[in-house]
Amino acid sequence: AHEAAMAARSADDLRSPICCILGHVDTGKTKLLDKIRQTNVQEGEAGGITQQIGATYFPVDAIKQKTAVVNRDNSFEFKVPGLLVIDTPGHESFSNLRSRGSSLCNIAILVVDIMHGLEPQTLESMKLLRDRKTPFIVALNKIDRLYGWKKVENNGFQESLALQNKGVQNEFAKRLEDTKVAFAEQGFNSELYYENKSMAKFVSLVPTSAHTGEGIPDMLKLILQLTQERMVGSLMYLSEVQCTVLEVKAIEGFGMTIDVILSNGVLREGDKICLCGVDGAITTNVRALLTPAPLKELRLKSAYVHNKEVKAALGVKISAPGLEGAIAGSRLMVIGPDDDQSDIEDEIESDLGALFSRVEKSGRGVTVQASTLGSLEALLDFLKSSKIPVANVGIGPVFKRDVMNCGTMLEKNKEYAVMLCFDVKIDKEAQAYADDQGIKIFTADIIYHLFDAFTKHMSIIAEKRKEESKLLAVFPCVLSPVAVFNKTGPIIVGVDVVEGNLRMHTPIAAVKQNSVTGLKEIVNIGRVTGIERDHKQLQNCKKGQPSVAVKIEMGSHQPTYGRHLEEKDTLYSLISRASIDCLKEFYRSDVSNDEWLLIKKLKPLFDIP
Ligand code: GDP
Fold first, then answer.
1. pLDDT tens for residues 373-414?
2. Structural element, H or E, at residue 488
3. Can you state the angle between helices 428-437 and 400-407, rounded to 10 degrees?
4. Ligand 1, atom 17: nearest CA belongs to which residue?
5. Which of 127, 218, 422, 539 has its CA 20 to 30 A from that of 228?
6. Using one digit for the tens of pLDDT, what is the confidence trace for 40-75?
7. Rounded distance between C-alpha atoms, residue 141 and residue 298, angstroms
8. Three-state secondary structure call for residue 372
9. Lowest mean pLDDT among 172-186, 357-371, 420-434
């Protein structure tokens, strides 16, 4: 694996940095990518932009052309051979391009809609970028939507801004200021890029329009500038193979293939490679390294070109035997002649192990299933910061066995009988089983949507339990009867409340001595269904207030005054272990100190330890 590492460092050994585009949905990520890919007709073919597997390669000549309007004096020096931009914008690919906690994506463009400011996925993206320490710039996109904007296609931003009327300039200034404040609230200092004195201290904001192309030359120049300033050792050399699986796909004529981003080093046909699969490490040999055929050669039989070797950075499709079950987001390592195969397999498997070992030791928590290693990691990080415990994790589509696994939670912690599924398909049978068992499956391809759904689910459950608990909760009271108006079915007695607070629905009991056995006997006499004084219905009666008439009802076999009860018997609220626990869980703030003391006093009467 190290063979290329120590090669002499010449210009041929330079590799291109990798760039990802992140941001909230609909900010214009795809449109920006399309716009920078577009060849500029007036200035002829922008030399050699190539469509790769999962990425687009911009050789430095193409970038020079595209940035010419903002580099008229040629003062900006280009030092990298080109730029590889990942084609699928968003969290997914960024999260997957990772290696031991660091990012293989060297640089990122965070797209913000200048009309909307920071949105939920903008914040998620910022968190990812911060965690991975990835330098980034911010494209403040859709400037053409500022009211009254006059466009000059593909112009440099500063020139375009100077052409606008005062009203547009003012609106721009205001939105820029708002954006800076919003970034500061997230702990990032930001500056309009041409006023930024230190790219290490301030995030650069570059206004763009993916529709008119304005600001895009500035953005491209800026991204190279940031790369060159922030790259370790100032330039990037080819060295040890670093490679990540971005997609696993079956292709006619090739069987199962993997689309990888080679971020460093060299891959050759026939190389022995190792990557992560659902059943452990997969070790196989590269049968073919495929890149898309150039457009003009599409009439050729195959859509792919076979390569003997490929150099970083690029996107390439690998065909090899035994790739079924390969996991997207997995690292790919080359096993050289001097390498120990089992060491490398262990290392590959440890990526998966590290994630699977992050489950709750108590075994109580939700089940999480994601499409790739990277998205699983991002989701676990997010759930951790949201303090949602995770008991099971999985990769790939959800099958019945995954739901069954989650179902063990029905007995342990019903509210955790929930699957949070990120960007994965749910098998029909699995869904049916879940519905049948009462296991909730939430799916989303945006992390915070999952979080919202889960939070809502939890609050509904809490509400339901509080509702159910109403009949279980018993506030303590002690009643001294003064008159019996009706002996039974229902019992109606006049009482003084001598302790606590008598409330509607309270279960009432008398404590008597059995006349035959002499043992203590708790006589349950029913629940309070009416509290009345001077013909007025009351909800409660507190200790010391004037007497009330209390109606006590019981479904059947209610004890009878004169037979099971006597007027002199003191009446108590019937408390139990469960009723006390319920008060503690749902009504703690409603129970006064005196009431807690009274509960304590009543406990021995009802033999509650
Ligand atoms: P993504 O979800 O971030 O990839 O966003 P898209 O690239 O799909 O763009 C979302 C919508 O915004 C589309 O209707 C685009 O045409 C529109 N859009 C993107 N960029 C711009 C822009 O610079 N100006 C204007 N006016 N609309 C834009």
1. 888 988 898 888 888 899 999 998 999 999 999 998 888 888
2. none
3. 20
4. 28
5. 127
6. 444 444 567 888 888 999 989 889 988 999 999 989
7. 35
8. coil
9. 357-371
Full-model pTM: 0.76
- Closest-CA residue, ligand 1 atom 27, reads 142
Give the mean pLDDT of the chain.
Answer: 89
Residues 477 and 495 sit within 8 Å (Cβ to Cβ): no
Contact assessment for residue 550 and residue 537, using Cβ atoms and an 8 Å cutoff:
no
* Residue whose pair of structure tokens reads 């009432």 in the numeric block: 508
Q: Indicate the Cα dihedral angle 173, 178, 179, 184, nearest 10°.
A: 130
For the chain, how many residues are written? 609
Band the pLDDT of 296: cuts 50, 70, 90. low
Closest CA to ligand 1's atom 6: 28
Assembly ipTM: 0.99
Q: What is the three-class DSSP state of 225?
A: helix
Q: Residues 63, 56: contact at Cβ < 8 Å?
A: no
Mutate to test the pocket of ligand 1, among 26, 31, 122 (most ligand atoms within 8 A of CB): 31
- Contact at 8 Å (CB) between 511 and 521? yes
Q: How far is the CA of 215 from the centre of ligand 1 (A)?
A: 15
Atom of ligand 1 nearest to the CA of 33: 7
Task: Quote the crossing angle between the two packed helices 216-230 and 29-37, to the nearest 10°.
Answer: 90
Task: Report the alpha-carbon distance of residue 486 to residue 530 in Å, rounded.
Answer: 13
- Residues with CB under 6 Å of ligand 1 are 23, 25-31, 89, 141-142, 144-145, 209-211
